[in-house]
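hey can u check if this looks right to u? its 449 residues, i copy pasted from the old doc so theres a chance i mangled smth
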Amino acid sequence: MAVTRSIELRTEVPGPRSREIAERKESVIAEPLGLYVPVFAAEGHGALITDVDGNTFVDFMGGIGCLAVGHSHPRVVAAVQEQLPLLAHGLDFPTEIKDEFVSVQLDLLPEPMRERTKIQFCGPAGANAVDAAIKLCKIATGRGDIVSFRGAFHGSSHSALSVTGMVSQKQPVANAMPGVHFFPFPYAYRWPAELHPETCAEQCLHYFEAGLKDPLGGLPRPAAVIMEVVQAEGGVIPAPIEFVQGVRRVTKELDIPLIVDEVQSGCGRTGTWYAFEHYGIVPDAIVASKGLGGIGMPIAVVLYDEELDLWSPGAHTATFRGNQLAFAAGVASARIIERDGILDNVSELGDYLTAELRGMQRRHDCIGDVRGPGLLIGIELVDPQTGAENPAFARAVQRGALEHGLIVELGGRHDSVVRLLPPLNVSRETAADALEILDLALADASRAA
């Protein structure tokens, strides 16, 4: 195999020790969403993971976007080690590292937002922050309905699942949170030809605006609209700028808080600290998690406009909201990203990867679309004859990539989109290795099809 710089495969994949552990754990561990990778990790550094059999892989799943600066970044590890003997769990005690974390997060906001923004610490996952943001907006407005978008993924807790579009997760759960309404999201690649894909953003915005303003439309003015400006789990679908700006205009006109979910797209993933900055809007609330902890330390927050700050102390609580180790990791990670110019790397490597993938698309007719932005990349795999989603082929590509030394995730409709979420500081050499492996996996899967 030509790829040699980053990858070292000493056994078949999965190796004997991984298979042995798999046999022991199958009866007791439930693996969510089919994300299970059949190798057992021993250690990770940067963009690489080594398993218990000594095989080293390029990890472009990246904890589903948690690893902003990669596995075990030494400066972030040092910051956590320095904090650990001092105080690990501070609940709501004010501490120096918590104050520093807050200051850093506010400083990373666009300048007009800094003086008006409050921060709420939640449970350690993005879904907890989604729950909190929904509760915040319901209390502030006195209203109860929530508007979301088709294709959205906001988490798997009860209320977060209710505003998520994934039917397979929702269907088995009776009595979901009531009052949730889904509107179309502009997905030009899958827009019916007879409806003119080039105008799908305009059509979706018209439907959204008419639905909220029609006095006979049946929808009371909602407590909030929640939106990902880039649908991540939904298949890496960036919203057109005119759609996002139109949603912001309509919600402003109707005094409806706009929650932007940046759990996966935030913390530098798209080349700006938050993805909404590409769109020139100011949301009322931002949900953030994942990359905030730098190396996967668990933390989640809601950043919101002070006008919404109408809930009482203790209205939203969570035991692990005072994770001092996560604060230390978050501060260290944000400073590394700023000091080392990592956002520039995100933009440059994102452009490089998408350009190379589009070149690959010309050689592989199974690639229907390649989408960015930054280092949040989706490759939609299709049946070359019909253009339909091709989940079996996508699974074959994922497995083939693993066997050659690359870990990737699937998402989108029917899990037909290969998603790439490398560390933000990934090197060009490692990115080139990943591309070469993906090319091999595509070719192998095509020959076997």
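The mean pLDDT is 94.
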